[in-house]
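Our preliminary data section would be incomplete without showing what the modeling component actually yields. Below, a chain of 104 amino acids is followed by its predicted structure, encoded as tokens that our downstream tools consume directly.
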Amino acid sequence: MAKDLKSFAREKLSQVSEKLKVAEKDAEKVLDGHEKEQKDIKSAYEKYKKLSKNDLVKEFLTQIENKKKSGNFNRAEVDNIAKRISPMLNNEQKQMLKSILDSI
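Predicted structure:
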């Protein structure tokens, strides 16, 4: 019986070890994805940080128009982005964002 218990424990330990390896690989994939996302955000920030408010709005509307022309415009995606950034904006910026979204 002790032998069966040891075998059972080894088997379970082996299963847990395999699951842990899979979880570690999954975690690495998630981290790699976040690193890419951070690079993309930093790149966008560097590209747009020197633009005036009016130039930013023009650039945004130009990109929306280009997406519409190419058939890649996704209103739900735009609304989702707006929803995610809205908590970071002050009231004036929120009103401007709402106005822009209403115009597209």
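The chain is about 85% helix and 0% strand. The radius of gyration is 24 Å. Preliminary results of this kind motivate Aim 1 of the renewal.
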